[in-house]
């Protein structure tokens, strides 16, 4: 199943649990918790990302406090990196996401302050959106895991023009991608290898094993957030993609349009 409505991927202590096995692929995963959790990372590297609320994380006996945020629409959050083979307990109040990827290198546990998260404004006009590049290549080191947050003001389109990353060549990387949503309702399109046009809202997930994906459409009156989790087989992390050639001209059109003044929508809490 490519569109996974909230409440249909629960498992044990997790409100959402997407593993490589359940997704039918090899690398990318995601867990979301609304309650305290204790677990082992096993063969996956993970991030602890507050979606709402604040959390204390004990990882291999070390304690870290994540100050978090009221919601994904109020601030950029701090986060924590968890390597493979780590014992973890998370306590606090709110909702926390754990993007993950199967990994082979054990990197150190690291805290990522919100103030260091690069906030990018992409697109123009009704394709204006905010990207929080907290775990993008070149920003934060992981073995295979990549993750970014995207905020789309109501009525705008993001993940646009539609693009794909399912072939390995210069300018494109092979990646398994997860979209996890908050806010909405909105709509998500996937096509090319399989067809999806799904209404999405808080807690929903869309899996993209291959094919073009986009646009992500925020319905008028409703801002849309999604967390992208990506990982693939290449030794070097890359989020390179290839636009649908029918719609690639859209990027050139942005040069003549003003950026929507509603973005950026958030920044690091002061």
Automatic annotation (TrEMBL):
GO terms for molecular function: glucuronate isomerase activity. Gene3D superfamilies: Jelly Rolls. SUPFAM superfamilies: RmlC-like cupins. Keywords: Isomerase. Transmembrane segments: none annotated. Coiled coil: none annotated. The keyword Isomerase applies. InterPro entries: Deoxy-glucuronate_isom_IolB, KduI/IolB_isomerase, RmlC-like_jellyroll, RmlC_Cupin_sf. One of its GO terms (biological process) is inositol catabolic process. It holds the Pfam family KduI. This is 5-deoxy-glucuronate isomerase.
């Amino acid at each position: 199943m490519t569109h996974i409505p909230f409440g249909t991927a629960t498992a044990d202590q997790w409100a959402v649990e997407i593993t490589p096995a359940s997704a039918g692929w090899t690398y990318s995963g995601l867990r979301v918790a609304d309650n305290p959790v204790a677990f082992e990372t096993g063969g996956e590297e993970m991030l602890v990302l507050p979606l709402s609320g604040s959390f204390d994380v004990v990882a291999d006996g070390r304690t870290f406090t994540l100050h978090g945020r009221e919601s994904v629409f109020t601030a950029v959050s701090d986060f924590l990196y968890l390597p493979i083979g780590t014992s973890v307990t998370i306590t606090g109040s709110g909702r926390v996401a754990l993007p993950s990827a199967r990994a082979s290198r054990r990197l150190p546990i690291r805290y990522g302050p919100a103030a260091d998260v690069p906030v990018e404004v992409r697109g123009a006009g009704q394709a204006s959106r905010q990207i929080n590049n907290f775990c993008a290549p070149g920003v934060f080191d992981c073995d295979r895991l990549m993750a970014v947050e995207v905020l789309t003001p109501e009525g705008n389109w993001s993940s646009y023009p539609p693009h794909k990353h399912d072939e390995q060549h210069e300018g494109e990387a092979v990646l398994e991608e997860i979209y996890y949503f908050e806010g909405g309702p909105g709509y998500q399109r996937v096509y090319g290898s399989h067809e999806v046009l799904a209404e999405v809202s808080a807690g929903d997930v869309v899996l993209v094993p291959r094919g073009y994906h986009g646009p992500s459409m925020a319905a008028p009156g409703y801002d849309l957030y999604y967390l992208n989790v990506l990982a693939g087989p290449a030794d070097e992390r890359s989020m390179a993609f290839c636009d649908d050639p029918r719609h690639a001209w859209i990027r050139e059109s942005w040069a003549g349009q003003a950026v929507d003044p509603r973005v950026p929508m958030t920044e690091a809490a002061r």
